[in-house]
Amino acid sequence: MLTRRSAICFALASGVGTLSDIPLSRKAAASTDNEARWWKEAVVYQVYPRSFQDTNGDGMGDLPGLISRLDHIQALGATVVWLCPHYDTPDIDNGYDIRDYRKVNPDLGTMADFERLVSELHQRGMRLIVDLVVNHTSDEHEWFRQSRSSRNNPYRDFYIWRDGRDGGPPNNYPSFFGGSAWQLDAPTGQYYLHYFARKQPDLNWENPKVRQHVYDIMRFWLDKGVSGFRMDVIPYISKPDEMPDLSPEALILPEYAYANGPHVHDYLQEMNREVLAGHNLLTVGEAGGVTFEQTPLYVGSDRHELDMIFHFDLAHLGRVDWKMQPWTIPQLKSMVIQEDQSGGPHGWAATFLENHDHPRSVSRYGDDRPQGRIQSAKALAVLLLMRRGTPYIYQGEEIGMTNIPFSSIADFEDINAHGIWKTTVESGAMDATEVLPDLRRTSRDNARTPMQWDASENGGFTTGKPWFRVNPNHTEINVAHQKHDPQSVLTFYRHLIALRANHRTLIYGAFQDVDPSHPAVFAFTRTDQNERFLILINLTGEPQNYVLPMTARITDVLLTSTSNPQSPLPAELPAWHAGIYKIEA
Ligand code: TEU
Ligand code: CA
Question: Is the distance from CB of 361 to CB of 353 less than 8 angstroms?
Fold first, then answer.
């Protein structure tokens, strides 16, 4: 709830230190490049179009559907839409397998629909960024059809071909979707590389013609009015010079072997010179396999590569591939702190808790049972939106959508889930009962169920048969219910985004965790020369008797997630309590 209070001095428990007691290493980098840019002030809303809104009853979301829901996105306060792939595709990986980069997927609509989307957004003062998927194409792309046809074809070098070794693949590289990353191709007897599915052959970026084609595709969409790109698995585009077998340790997390190839920065700088420079765009790289230490190389403004990247350290907390392990709140906070610092003095961060590849955040880090769902969704909203960095909200996150129950492997749609099943259960290596519980919790499918607009049969998503099951809890969790409810998750998101828009400190101000080792509470400050805020989040479902390890004079309570807080701080933080307090600098 929103509250305004007059200045109240809040004396904290004795024996606590002040901010200056916090070791320097934990302080926000003082020299952070705070140059104002529109994309630092943006709030991005990610749309997975096939699951957003159907308009023609075929059960598949479409661009006219997205256009019809722009008012919802605008009312939320988001300023940018990131549209997941909208290109022509055989659709084995929901559009991340592109057959024609210049054609709109007919299931989603037409080029005229796309142009209308851009103009409708611009009329609202909003922008569009699109997905750039250029580590690989579909095997049905014309380049690959040519490439595989003969060893002498002019497109042969557009992909990565090798001879086999001892009757098998050239090396032991695994595919992210199970099995080898190499596929023997009958017409020429060689293997091609595919980090993802067999139908997603990797492009050979060493070939300058490939790069020029990519740049042309980017120019094509810039000419249509897009304001930037989310670049799919961009650190993987440069392949290792030699390709020896990966060690057993490297095989556990192959993204670290595949990312940061020898020429990746040359390519990104070339792309910047040839396409991006001078356009004032938002560029965000999806950067699995890039460590915090390597981040400034991608996002330093002095590097002329990307504006920001997505790290997956937080998303992978307590996870190895599809398996879940225990994790702690100090570990979670440590990821957030490192992410905040990772850009270095000239970089900027992208923050997210959800996307189309990860389970729902309320099920992952919160509590999706009735007793905790709404409060924990609000606590997570504060974590997402009060940090420093450009926030990305994934469709449905703003209403606290949850994971979906799966009873058997037949309930899963995702090629990744089926790949995991094949290599574990079908291969005989594991029993279904060992795999299913973790797969349920980690599957990408959790995020891909249709958007829940209202309580009607298919959640208002379609009048036909939805391509993927609507979560049965749509009768309770939906936009229509929350829109006018002052206590809803959706209303809380709106308030938080408005707060951000009204306080530059909440966008640009330094971030500092004031109590990193606390086992339950995330307490951090946002500070610039004008203002200072304290943000408190109880990341548990238990009330916490909390003693802040600093002296703070609270002058205003801006927003709290639990109603009727005793002023100015509740004596004990209720379960999942989150609050934003103005404090004296
Ligand atoms: O995801 C890539 C991705 O999730 C991996 O690079 C990740 O680092 C790895 O699986 C280890 O967790 C993107 C898209 O977001 C996804 O939907 C696509 O399936 C994939 O690329 C292929 O295009
Ligand atoms: Ca449709």
Answer: yes
Query: What is the rounded distance in angstroms from the CA atom of residue 81 to the CA atom of residue 94?
Result: 18
Q: Which atom of ligand 1 is nearest to the CA of 97?
A: 23
**Sequence-distant (≥ 6) Cβ neighbours of residue 456 within 8 angstroms:** none
> If you average pLDDT over residues 219-244, what whole number do you get?
97
Confidence at residue 566, expressed as pLDDT on a 0 to 100 scale? 63
Q: Per residue in 131-179, pLDDT tens?
A: 999 999 999 999 999 999 999 999 999 999 999 999 999 999 999 999 9
Q: What is the pLDDT of residue 124?
A: 98
Residue 232: active-site member: yes
Q: Are 421 and 430 in contact (CB under 8 A)?
A: no
| Ligand 1 atom nearest 133 alpha carbon | 23
- Cβ count near 297 (within 10 Å): 18
Q: Which two tokens stand for residue 331?
A: 């570990």
Mean pLDDT of 469-498: 98
- Per residue in 505-555, pLDDT (tens digit) is 999 999 999 999 999 999 999 999 999 999 999 999 999 999 999 888 999
Going from the Cα of 360 to the center of ligand 2, the distance in angstroms, rounded, reads 24
Residues with CB under 5 A from ligand 2 (ion): 54, 56, 58, 60, 62
The finding on whether 258 has its CB within 6 A of some atom of ligand 1 is: no
Cα distances (Å, whole numbers) of residue 582 to 31, 37, 516, 552, 585: 23, 25, 20, 9, 9
pLDDT > 60? residue 463:
yes
Give yes or no for residue 357 CB within 6 A of ligand 1. yes
The pLDDT value recorded for residue 122 is 98
Does ligand 1 come within 6 angstroms of the Cβ of 133? yes
pLDDT tens, position by position, 171-191: 999 999 999 999 999 999 999
How remote is the CA of residue 103 from the centroid of ligand 1, in Å? 23
Q: What is the CA radius of gyration of the chain?
A: 24
Q: Is 152 left (phi over 0), alpha (psi -120 to 50) or beta?
A: alpha
Q: With 90 as the cut, is the pLDDT of residue 28 above it?
A: no
What sections of 48-103 are H helices per DSSP? Answer: 63-68, 70-76
> Before 568, cis peptide (omega within 30)?
yes
Residue 12 has pLDDT above 70, yes or no: no
* Reported pTM: 0.94
- Residue 535 region, left (φ>0) first, then alpha (ψ -120 to 50), else beta? beta
User: Catalytic residue among 54, 139, 255, 286, which?
Assistant: 286
- CA angle 224/72/502 to nearest 5° reads 90
Q: Measured between alpha carbons, how far is 492 from 386 in angstroms, rounded to an integer? A: 13
Report the separation in Å between the CA atom of 57 and the middle of ligand 2, taken as the mean of its atom positions.
6
